[in-house]
Amino acid sequence: MSMFKAFLIKYAEIGLKGNNRYLFENALCDRIKDALKPLGTFRVFKEQGRVFVECPEDYDYEETVEALKRVFGISSFCPVVTVADTDWESLTKAVGDYVEAMYPDADFTFKVFAKRADKNYPISSPDICGMMGAYLLGRFPNLKVDVHNPEVSLNVEIRTKAYIYSVEIPGPGGMPVGSNGKAMLLLSGGIDSPVAGYMIAKRGVSVDAVYFHAPPYTSERAKQKVIDLAKKISRYAGRMKLFVVNFTDIQLYIYDQCPHDELTIIMRRYMMRIAEHFAKQENCLGLITGESLGQVASQTMQSLAATNEVCTMPVYRPLIAFDKKDIVEIAETIDTYETSIQPYEDCCTIFVAKHPVTKPNLKKIRHSERKLEEKIDELLETALKTVEIIEIE
Ligand code: ATP
Ligand code: MG
């Protein structure tokens, strides 16, 4: 059983939000509750500009730490030992026992940081620091005080209970999901789009996703891979809806009617149109893609301009200036990489031309799309009607 009975949550940017600060704090508390719910009955509460998590007796420390590391809005968090008796004798003993348990060699430089949130406590913060330091030096002969650069910062906060902590675990940063609207992620089975979704969620945005499936050209396993990726993203972004659109007939029709070197661009324009339909339906305020300048033919400046032309909502492309290796690094950190590199074909690779245009001419693209007039509306309607919606928890 862990000696830590609580966590002190530190947040950075949401502290800057002026009058809206409480909204961000509330969203942060809610997201922490969501993250810890499957792990037991935790109490999450705000107190004097701090967020605390109180743990149940039988909680799993490692699991809890892992869950907190995924809650956006947390800049860092500290496992805390709580002391119910705050009289001086009990408190000094508890701090000494903490040192003994955490640092069995008891050989380091330290500084005591005291915070007296309970102003009725009879000893002032500077005196707590001084007296606690003296007590520890007496109990552990190898300790030394270093007020400028201590190896261990020993924090003692006195509230209705006293809190002791000295370890700070980095959180993911960002803003609590749900504090900043919702966007629709175009989620393929590749490396880039899951990272793009993660990055926008990190700025406090809730995420739904749309995947274009092209059976029988893309297999059930390709679809399952996208579902797996959505689950991985939802570990950070919370619950999401995944819209699986059957794109086969639209792709085949484009393939039949349009010049093959323009296939990818025209197909991508239809993906954007369909994604926007579901985005509006779900009250999203933007689209998200994993596009990165120059990565492939459909991601040159000209191609992106051609794709973007059909969008009426903002399109967020958080990876636009990222090198592949930097994207891979994030994919590895958020544990989507191994899933993304499973070798199941996606719908773009099957219909891709040998020599796709890299500088599409918008007039020509619009002209080619006119060749779709006869049947495209009906095909779009069917695609929208037959969408499969998967709830990702
Ligand atoms: P990714 O690694 O995300 O698949 P990519 O480098 O393979 O990206 P493209 O295939 O050109 O690049 O796709 C660019 C973006 O378009 C993707 O990041 C994704 O947002 C979206 N996209 C591509 N294919 C699909 C699909 N089948 N379903 C949903 N979105 C897609
Ligand atoms: Mg792809």
Automatic annotation (TrEMBL):
<protein>
    <recommendedName>
        <fullName>Probable tRNA sulfurtransferase</fullName>
        <ecNumber>2.8.1.4</ecNumber>
    </recommendedName>
</protein>
<dbReference type="GO" id="GO:0000049">
    <property type="term" value="F:tRNA binding"/>
</dbReference>
<keyword id="KW-0820">tRNA-binding</keyword>
<dbReference type="InterPro" id="IPR003720">
    <property type="entry name" value="tRNA_STrfase"/>
</dbReference>
<dbReference type="InterPro" id="IPR049962">
    <property type="entry name" value="THUMP_ThiI"/>
</dbReference>
<dbReference type="GO" id="GO:0140741">
    <property type="term" value="F:tRNA-uracil-4 sulfurtransferase activity"/>
</dbReference>
<dbReference type="Pfam" id="PF02926">
    <property type="entry name" value="THUMP"/>
</dbReference>
<dbReference type="InterPro" id="IPR049961">
    <property type="entry name" value="ThiI_N"/>
</dbReference>
<dbReference type="GO" id="GO:0002937">
    <property type="term" value="P:tRNA 4-thiouridine biosynthesis"/>
</dbReference>
<dbReference type="GO" id="GO:0004810">
    <property type="term" value="F:CCA tRNA nucleotidyltransferase activity"/>
</dbReference>
<keyword id="KW-0694">RNA-binding</keyword>
<dbReference type="InterPro" id="IPR014729">
    <property type="entry name" value="Rossmann-like_a/b/a_fold"/>
</dbReference>
<keyword id="KW-0547">Nucleotide-binding</keyword>
<feature type="binding site">
    <location>
        <position position="290"/>
    </location>
    <ligand>
        <name>ATP</name>
    </ligand>
</feature>
<feature type="binding site">
    <location>
        <begin position="211"/>
        <end position="212"/>
    </location>
    <ligand>
        <name>ATP</name>
    </ligand>
</feature>
<dbReference type="Pfam" id="PF02568">
    <property type="entry name" value="ThiI"/>
</dbReference>
<dbReference type="Pfam" id="PF22025">
    <property type="entry name" value="ThiI_fer"/>
</dbReference>
<dbReference type="GO" id="GO:0005829">
    <property type="term" value="C:cytosol"/>
</dbReference>
<feature type="binding site">
    <location>
        <position position="268"/>
    </location>
    <ligand>
        <name>ATP</name>
    </ligand>
</feature>
<dbReference type="GO" id="GO:0009229">
    <property type="term" value="P:thiamine diphosphate biosynthetic process"/>
</dbReference>
<dbReference type="InterPro" id="IPR020536">
    <property type="entry name" value="ThiI_AANH"/>
</dbReference>
<dbReference type="GO" id="GO:0009228">
    <property type="term" value="P:thiamine biosynthetic process"/>
</dbReference>
<keyword id="KW-0784">Thiamine biosynthesis</keyword>
<feature type="binding site">
    <location>
        <position position="299"/>
    </location>
    <ligand>
        <name>ATP</name>
    </ligand>
</feature>
<dbReference type="InterPro" id="IPR054173">
    <property type="entry name" value="ThiI_fer"/>
</dbReference>
<dbReference type="GO" id="GO:0052837">
    <property type="term" value="P:thiazole biosynthetic process"/>
</dbReference>
<keyword id="KW-0067">ATP-binding</keyword>
<feature type="binding site">
    <location>
        <begin position="186"/>
        <end position="187"/>
    </location>
    <ligand>
        <name>ATP</name>
    </ligand>
</feature>
<dbReference type="GO" id="GO:0005524">
    <property type="term" value="F:ATP binding"/>
</dbReference>
<comment type="similarity">
    <text>Belongs to the ThiI family.</text>
</comment>
<dbReference type="InterPro" id="IPR050102">
    <property type="entry name" value="tRNA_sulfurtransferase_ThiI"/>
</dbReference>
<feature type="domain" description="THUMP">
    <location>
        <begin position="62"/>
        <end position="169"/>
    </location>
</feature>
<dbReference type="InterPro" id="IPR004114">
    <property type="entry name" value="THUMP_dom"/>
</dbReference>
<keyword id="KW-0808">Transferase</keyword>
<comment type="function">
    <text>Catalyzes the ATP-dependent transfer of a sulfur to tRNA to produce 4-thiouridine in position 8 of tRNAs, which functions as a near-UV photosensor. Also catalyzes the transfer of sulfur to the sulfur carrier protein ThiS, forming ThiS-thiocarboxylate. This is a step in the synthesis of thiazole, in the thiamine biosynthesis pathway. The sulfur is donated as persulfide by IscS.</text>
</comment>
<comment type="pathway">
    <text>Cofactor biosynthesis; thiamine diphosphate biosynthesis.</text>
</comment>
<keyword id="KW-0963">Cytoplasm</keyword>
